[in-house]
């Protein structure tokens, strides 16, 4: 029995636009990380704008996932759970709600890393869209670790010194995203310091990944380009 025509059209459309969607995904992530998070608590910015950015990012992730139905289900389910947990956290910021929201974001980021890595490092010509997709992976790694740090800070408030809660919130994701990026890039300003042994171990792991990723990425991209040129001869 042949596949449904609508499914075939979707597959062809997805294969055509998958690489450009990687560029769109990078733009959305950069808006969310470098503009949305710093301004989210600002009185001059409507949070609904950045909620729309997050929604667009979910749609882009589904498009990149193509016919990986398990990945699509994980993206949609984790997004819904994270949304509900964050809404509950505003009125009842307990360690449980914080952990549920953070773990949901971790599942989302892990799934996004998996599907984007298939699109970036799969066979074919190396395009600018794929290179931008590799940057998406780098940003997602930082966000994945930031969510993991949030779980530790929710359960062990002094796991990272300097990551104190504002108001009634148990943790501030913005500062932990900042800490994750300074760790991944080995910047280490010293204003946030890991104290708990497990957090120190995770910080070391993230730092090693941050050092190895660019070299691994360069080697893989060169290999893909050489293979593509050999097939074209």
Layout: helices, strands, pairs:
Blueprint: H1 5-39, H2 47-65, H3 69-91, H4 95-121, H5 128-155, E1 160-161, H6 173-184, E2 193-194, H7 197-232
Antiparallel strand pairs: 1-2
Helix pairs in contact: 1-2, 1-5, 2-3, 3-4, 4-5, 5-6, 5-7
Describe the overall structure.
The chain has one domain. It is an all-alpha fold and 233 residues long. Helices cover 77% and strands 2% of the residues. The longest helix has 36 residues. The protein starts with a helix and ends with a helix. The chain is globular, with a radius of gyration of 19 Å. A two-stranded antiparallel sheet has the order 1-2.
Order of helices and strands: HHHHHEHEH
Q: Round the mean pLDDT to the nearest integer and report it.
A: 83
Distance between the termini: 37 Å
Q: What number of domains?
A: 1
Biggest pleated sheet = 2 strands, antiparallel
- Number of strand elements: 2
Helix-strand makeup class: mainly alpha
**Major β-sheet strand ordering:** 1-2
- Rg, rounded, reads 19 Å
């Amino acid at each position: 029995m042949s596949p449904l025509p609508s499914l075939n059209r979707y597959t062809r459309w997805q294969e055509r636009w998958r690489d450009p969607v990687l560029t769109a995904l990078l733009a959305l992530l950069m808006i969310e990380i470098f503009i949305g998070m710093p301004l989210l608590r600002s009185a001059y910015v409507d949070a609904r704008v950045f909620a729309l950015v997050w929604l667009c990012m979910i749609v882009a992730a589904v498009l990149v996932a193509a016919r990986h139905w398990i990945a699509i289900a994980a993206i949609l389910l984790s997004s819904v759970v994270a949304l509900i947990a964050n809404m509950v956290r505003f009125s009842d910021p307990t360690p449980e709600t914080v952990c549920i929201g953070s773990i949901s974001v971790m599942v989302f980021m892990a799934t996004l890393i998996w599907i984007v890595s298939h699109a970036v490092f799969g066979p074919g010509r190396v395009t600018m869209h794929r290179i931008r997709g590799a940057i998406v992976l780098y940003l997602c790694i930082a966000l994945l670790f930031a969510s993991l740090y949030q779980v530790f800070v929710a359960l062990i408030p002094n796991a990272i010194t300097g990551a104190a809660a504002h108001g009634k919130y148990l943790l501030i994701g913005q500062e932990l995203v900042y800490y994750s990026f300074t760790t991944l890039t080995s910047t280490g300003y010293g204003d946030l310091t890991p104290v708990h042994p497990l957090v120190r171990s995770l910080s070391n792991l993230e730092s090693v990944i941050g050092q190895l990723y660019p070299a691994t990425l360069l080697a893989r991209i060169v290999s893909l380009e050489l293979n593509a040129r050999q097939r074209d001869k």
